[in-house]
Amino acid sequence: MFFRLAADLIVLVHLAFVVFVVGGGLLALKWRRLAFLHIPAALWGAWIEFAGWICPLTPFENHLRKLAGNAGYAGGFIEHYITSVLYPGGLTTAIQVTLGAAVIVVNGIVYWMYFARRPNR
After folding, report:
1. What digits encode the pLDDT tens for the residues 80-95?
2. What is the DSSP string of 63-97?
3. In angstroms, what CA-CA distances link 64 with 17, 27, 46, 56, 93?
């Protein structure tokens, strides 16, 4: 029971991180210092997609699921939880590159707004 709950908690943390990667720049517009956390997180999220890597949280979650007596899953968090909903056919390299580019474009626009609003010194 503990391992299953821990794996579920990892999923929630992972999902929160993905949401932060995609939309955290909007929070940085309000709380400027948050940009120091968001920019590295967004770069990491985009790099994971561009490189075709799997986030380290995914194997950890799978390990906890196996300890709980459940089967883990192949692929990454995005492929298993998000892409399976958005793109039922499966995750391809082209989709991963598109997701990474979307992170860069969305956050590029947000940070353009961030710096455009900064008072000149």
Report:
1. 666 555 445 667 788 8
2. HHHHHTT----SS-HIIIIIIHHH-TT---HHHHH
3. 19, 32, 26, 13, 27
